[in-house]
Amino acid sequence: QVQLVESGGGLVQAGGSLRLSCVASGRFFSINSMGWYRQAPGKQRELVAAITSGGSTNYADSVKDRFTISRDNAKNTVYLQMSSLKPEDTAVYYCNAHISAITFAQTNYWGQGTQVTVSS
Predict the structure, then answer these.
(1) Residue 28: Cβ within 10 Å count
(2) Is 114 exposed, middle or buried (0-12, 13-18, 19+ CB in 10 A)?
(3) Cβ atoms within 10 Å of 103's Cβ, excluding its own
């Protein structure tokens, strides 16, 4: 059973910083792309940032130059460093990973979500 467990959310003032972490655990062959999504109340879930196994990154326009995604393949962990936070960044942030089983079948996994609240 593969699990993604997020940590690092919380309450921060506008202009502040937070770092989210997500660890993948369980039995699998490899982790392919990993990413962070967010969902604000009344809105659809949207991609924030993604990173491939080779380190190529992709960001939503709204977070470019403020957020940085990275991963530690040895620790099966993906990070999201968030800086210059704005109230509109308030949302539940979800970790996502495309993971290959030992059978090479690929499955899309989600974490349980972590709340990020930015006060003005």
Answers:
(1) 19
(2) buried
(3) 8
